[in-house]
């Protein structure tokens, strides 16, 4: 099975109540490693790029890498643009063939976010691409106090945004944050159920790094069909490079360091795919 529309991957997962790992990659090595883990476990996979990665590598080079690496892939795979407030970058990625985008209008008023998101959905439909929407934004763990309550909009506001824009997936704030949690986060899982029951669309769970297996099971069961993982990849990739250098002082052999990093990223991706129930679902 080649690259497929993100809708196909997410809707199947939503119906089957398992989670698809949506993993942010940072370069060719990490893209290949995440795809290798998905193929090994016969799991569907969403590979994500941040705006920073698109700008540093270039949309054309990223897409050439993606096409080359997925040419003969036999699990469902899709390429997604994560948190993007910049309309030009959304257009650029859609033109190049990304399968989905997250329009991040969380810094705008809900009304302005809604108006722009309606335009993004219309643009994405021309390419058959999925759109994820958000209204609250996610802080980084370092910016949050231990007892901080999530800044949630009302359920009515969220439901109205979803219905008015026609987004395919919604990413609510439920006490989750980007980065490595200092302790197990307190999550408002009921909000996922409320949104799913009111709208019938899948939820994207952000801030996946550091959630517990029980939290993943619970949230996936409630309808979090797309689960974002970024920090865990960065840690696995960077730490493996550091450990390799430390264990091999004075040896400067890139291929052996790359092997160590690739194995660490594959282990991380394998672990998360399994935790989310994606193994064998290709
Ligand atoms: P983490 O970095 O906490 O895994 O969050 C990833 C994410 O939500 C990307 O949008």
Descriptive overview:
With 282 residues, this protein is α/β, with parallel strands linked by helices. Strands 6-5-4-3-2-1-8-7 form an eight-stranded parallel beta sheet, with helices on both faces. Helix 9 links the parallel strand 7 and strand 8. Helix 2 runs parallel beside helix 4, helix 2 crosses helix 11 and helix 10 runs antiparallel to helix 11. The longest helix is centred in the last third of the chain and has 23 residues. The chain is globular, with a radius of gyration of 18 Å. The protein starts with 5 loop residues before the first helix and ends in a 6-residue tail after the last helix. The model has no long low-confidence stretch (mean pLDDT 97). 1,3-dihydroxyacetonephosphate (13P) binds next to strand 3, strand 8 and helix 10.
List keywords for this structure.
alpha/beta; 8-stranded parallel sheet; binds 1,3-dihydroxyacetonephosphate
SSE topology:
Elements: H1 6-16, E1 20-24, H2 28-41, E2 45-49, H3 51-57, H4 59-70, E3 77-84, H5 87-96, E4 100-104, H6 110-125, E5 130-134, H7 155-165, E6 169-170, H8 189-199, E7 203-205, H9 213-222, E8 224-229, H10 231-247, H11 254-276
Parallel strand pairs: 1-2, 1-8, 2-3, 3-4, 4-5, 5-6, 7-8
Helix pairs in contact: 2-4, 2-11, 6-7, 7-8, 10-11
């Amino acid at each position: 099975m080649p690259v497929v529309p993100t809708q196909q991957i997410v809707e199947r997962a939503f119906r089957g109540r398992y989670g698809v790992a949506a993993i942010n990659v940072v370069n060719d090595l990490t893209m290949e490693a995440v795809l290798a883990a998905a193929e090994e476990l016969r799991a569907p996979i969403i590979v994500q790029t941040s705006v920073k990665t698109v700008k540093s590598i270039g949309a054309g080079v990223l897409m050439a890498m993606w096409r080359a690496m997925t040419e003969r892939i036999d699990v469902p795979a899709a390429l997604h643009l994560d948190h993007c407030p910049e309309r030009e970058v959304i257009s650029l990625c859609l033109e190049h063939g990304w399968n989905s985008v997250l329009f991040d209008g969380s810094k705008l008023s809900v009304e302005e976010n809604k108006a722009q998101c309606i335009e993004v959905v219309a643009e994405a439909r021309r390419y058959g691409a999925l759109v994820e929407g958000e209204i609250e934004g996610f802080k980084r763990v370092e910016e949050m106090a231990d007892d901080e309550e999530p800044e949630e909009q009302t359920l009515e506001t969220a439901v109205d945004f979803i219905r008015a824009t026609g987004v395919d997936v919604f990413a609510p704030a439920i006490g989750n944050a980007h980065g490595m949690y200092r302790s197990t986060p307190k999550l408002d899982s009921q909000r996922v159920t409320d949104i799913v029951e009111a709208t019938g669309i899948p939820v994207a769970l952000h801030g996946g790094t550091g959630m517990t297996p029980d939290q993943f099971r619970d949230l996936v069961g409630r309808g979090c069909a797309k689960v974002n993982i970024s920090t865990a990849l960065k840690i696995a990739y960077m730490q493996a490079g550091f450990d390799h250098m430390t264990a091999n002082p004075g040896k400067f052999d890139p291929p052996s360091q790359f092997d160590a990093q690739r194995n660490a990223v594959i282990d991380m991706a394998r672990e998360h795919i399994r935790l989310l129930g994606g193994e064998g679902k290709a």
